[in-house]
Design a protein that fits this description.
With 188 residues, the protein is α+β, with helices and mostly antiparallel strands. It is 28% helix and 27% strand. The protein is built from 4 helices and 8 strands, in the order ββααβββαβαββ. An 8-stranded mixed sheet has the order 1-2-3-4-5-6-8-7, with helices on both faces. The two termini are 19 Å apart.
Amino acid sequence: MAEQRRPPEHVEAHGFYLRRHRVDDAAGIAAAVAESLPELRAWLPWADSPATQPGAQRRRLEEAVPHWERDVEYVYILLRPGEDRILGCIGLHRRLGPSALEVGYWLRTDETGRGAMTEAVRALAEVALALEGIDRVEIHCDEANQKSAAIPRRLGFSLARTEDLEVKAQGEVGRSMVWVLEPTAEAP
């Protein structure tokens, strides 16, 4: 298989699938955020009341969806086959330089603890490491966010370092764990 510059628009994950997000996902994303706002607010600075409104999500998506073609980020929604209820979002972000991608994710509160995001991260990490020029995938999460940290730990990422960062969300302690997966490491 030839290396690709961008990830595919659809990715299969065990029992789930990822689809590139679109502007018409605004209402579904707003509903997922609204149902999970207290938990999301603890870790994500953007998780506020406007994020629960379809109009605000539509405006955000109108700006964000073109980032795919600009090679800034590749964001997906997480779904179960045959269903249209958005379980969460996951993305690959090019903010670490040309040879690495950062995985960011969030999941509906009522879906946590079922393995959905673990499978999504596993699938997307494999996709990322198969991309031309990518030699590592990273996950960054606050030290206090143990649910988020459990995913890279489960998937064989290595804890590379912990960095002091500005607290931006109410649950953070300002110590960001940086988890790294490289092709030479055990595959997720």
